[in-house]
Amino acid sequence: MSQNVDAARVRACLAGDPRAFAALVEAYEKPVYNVSLRMLRNPEDARDAAQTVFLKAWQNLSSYDPKYKFFSWIYRMAINESLNLLRSRGRDGGPVDDRLPSDDAGPAELLDGDQGREAVLAAVGRLKPEYRAVIVLRYFADLPYEDVGEALGLDPKTVKSRLYSARQLLKDQLASRGVA
Amino acid sequence: MDRTRLESLIQGELDGELPAAERAELAGVLLQDAEARRLRDDYGQLHGLLRGIAAAEPPSGLRQAILEGTAERPARNSGYRLAASFIGALMIAGLAYFAGYGRGSDTDLQGSMAAAPGAVSLRAAGIAVEASLQQDGDRHQLRIRASAPTPCEVVVRFDPGATTYTGNSGDGATTATEGRVTVRLPAGHPAQVLEFSGTAPSTLELHAGGRALGEARLTVSGS
Predict the structure, then answer these.
(1) pLDDT in tens, chain A (180 residues)
(2) Which helix or strand (DSSP H or E) is residue B191 part of?
(3) Which of A22, A51, A145 sits opposite B149 (nearest CB)?
(4) Which residues lie below 8 Å from residue B178, measured CB to CB, with a gap of 6+?
């Protein structure tokens, strides 16, 4: 997704082209939904968050600064909207969906297929929001440190530090369950 | 090498963000230290599991819901906010003549001064509607064109005691009641022609998502 293409779409949208915003939605519907889903671990909440994010983007397009990447701007809104939802539901520090595989499953079973992935997602869901956010943007939005930093308003060193801590926590959680 | 630095190098390498000198330093440690290799395997496994989680497909209908939502809530453009607030307070969307698409920025609600008589344009929430009213004796033809990311409705009002709605053609679905014709236009670039006899219809309203977005007064241009 090119920054120049996005900036042109924003300009066209502000100039009144009704197709331009539809094109932005088409380009970012899936990643924004996935960022929300991995933050919230609930498809219905993720749907609501993604919808709210795009509506806020639409209403605040004129405040978008094109010197930043559009996706950083919209991912930041997705993270913030997810955090708002978590806070409003009193879930900011705890797990959203704690469906870990049962402890009697062995490491080999856990590492294969859906169970292994589900264990990782559950562990991500138990991270504190600030750690969850960097993991989500790094892995589920596939952003490098610099772009994660731009999206979260952090310098890349802080991103690296949070990723380091987050992965340590994930590794320890999974090891305690016989995964990784 | 202490463990904190080793873990930091391993993670940096997995992220593809390790400079060449540190990659070489890590490679040297891994060659000599079995515990370092085990640690890298652990992080590599975690990295692989995280990267192996496929993106979920958004639920069907999400995109449509977003676009309908934007049609209901006008975009804010700071340059026009004050004017839009004033217009909103007066509940008048625009009193305008033809200006053509793409002139100026999108606003909360915009009516534009005309380049030609007998036509109006309404723009709101990413939807643009142009209408021109032609008169031939006591017959009137209202030509409507829209550019809209979502379906919208155009309502034409007239005095039922002085005007008769006589027919239509075009892309939309039309419903007529006393003093009012409603045209439901699909998304895209639909066009519709409405015909009247008697006095010309008076106002044009733009609706989307069940909400009125704007209104303009129609004026007549002779054929």
Answers:
(1) 577 899 999 999 888 887 899 999 999 999 999 999 999 999 999 999 999 999 999 988 888 888 889 999 999 999 999 999 988 877 554 444 434 334 344 334 445 567 778 889 999 999 999 999 999 999 999 999 999 999 999 999 999 999 999 999 999 998 887 765
(2) strand B191-198
(3) A22
(4) B160
Q: Which residues on chain A are in Cβ contact (under 8 Å) with B75?
A: 13-14, 21, 58-59, 61-62
Global pTM? Answer: 0.60
Query: How far does Cα B209 stand from its chain's mean position?
Result: 12
Query: How far is residue B215's CA from residue A114's CA, in Å, rounded to a whole number?
Result: 55
A113 interfaces chain B, CB cutoff of 8 Å: no
Tell me what ipTM this predicted complex has: 0.83
Rounded CA separation B171/A102 (Å): 58
Distances (CA, A) of B109 to A14, A22, A110, B28, B124: 13, 19, 57, 65, 5
Evaluate whether A98 touches A110 at the Cβ level (below 8 Å). no
Residue A94 and residue A117: Cα distance in Å, rounded?
19
Contact assessment for residue A114 and residue A128, using Cβ atoms and an 8 Å cutoff:
no
Which chain B residues are closer than 8 Å to A21 by Cβ? 67, 70, 75, 126, 149
In this complex, the residue of A19, A58, A171 whose CB is nearest that of residue B43 is A171
For residue A60, which residues of chain B lie inside 8 Å, CB to CB?
A: 76
Residue with tokens 């008169």, as numbered in its chain = B135
